[in-house]
TrEMBL record:
This is Amidohydrolase-related domain-containing protein. Belongs to the metallo-dependent hydrolases superfamily. One of its GO terms (biological process) is secondary metabolic process. InterPro entries: ACMSD, Amidohydro-rel, Metal_Hydrolase. Gene3D superfamilies: Metal-dependent hydrolases. GO terms for cellular component: cytosol. Keywords: Decarboxylase, Lyase. It comes from Tuber borchii (White truffle). The keyword Lyase applies. GO terms for molecular function: carboxy-lyase activity; hydrolase activity.
Amino acid sequence: MPIVDIHTHVYPPSYMQILESRSTVPYVRSFPPSNSSRLFVLPSEDPPSTTSTGRPIGPEYYDIAQKIAFMDTHKIDISVISLANPWLDFFPSSGAAAAAEALNNDLNATCDKFPGRLFAFGALPMSASVEEIVSKIKRLSGMKYMRGVVMGTSGFGKGLDDERLNGVWAALEETGQTVFLHPHYGLPKEVYGPTGGEEYGLVLPLALGFPLETTIAVSRMLLSGVWDRYQGLSVLLAHSGGTLPFLAGRLESCIAHDGKLHREGKIANRRTVWDILQKNILLDAVVYSEVGLKAAVDVAGADRVLFGTDHPFFPPLEENGEKGEWLSVTTNYKAIKDAFGPGEVEKVEGLLGGNAVRLLRLEV
Ligand code: URA
Ligand code: ZN
């Protein structure tokens, strides 16, 4: 059974050029005399303070040969690559559709260089019109290596419960493409304390802001009835659904006890959180612990959780001079192995790759 990584990013060279040409987030710059590049991409890194130094960024982000080498080191047979955050969200609306088309062509051509080893989630021009987005979704469905789209949580700037997104959900459902829903925007800095939590590096926005952002975004989709209207819409949640597996019961209970929703008739024919979790939501296994992984498997089912790495983020620290296997990857492998007993080999194989091959149709 192949090992498949469904959460693995790239910034293609053309996108890198854009990052290098910018001086506001998102951007890439160096700090002379050092000529090595640093990435500033998160809203919490904006504006840059004197102590924020971003993260190192090198060819592992844009050189596909390095992705393949990483796959070989970690025994990954197939990767489903996606543009990393913030995707095309910051593009002016006028050029966004053309940029998406060029980028998706580029990703598809990259996959074609390694047939059978690479597939991709395409990028959408979220600052363009609904019609342009829908036309890009339809185009992606005819591209050989595309299996869905990667998307942030902002939609048209107002979140994913925005009714203006109905046409987008309908097109994705109709073409059978999976949405890979990924965080970027986090939480307002103030929740991290008077300094915005800067004294703790990027720990608070990445460890907590990202998963909570995903949890809130998917809860709003659910509450606004997206999955009541589009019952075949499949959404793969990054980082094992943020905190959704842990909070699903509370979410369901708060819905059942909400007088306003009840009075307005909004809960009469709704599908439950549990039902949606089992039929429409896929969870990645990028959660770094047996506890989190078991929760993901409990709510979505072992046949709907999919291995991922988040490469090239979370590399071994330069400061420690670590080489070889990445701790961020071995931690996730270990969590999967520890979560299942000796009689559950089939579940482990499914989670590591079989589920992805089946659900994303990963045959050339
Ligand atoms: N940091 C990011 O900015 N993106 C990821 O996907 C992971 C870590
Ligand atoms: Zn990621």
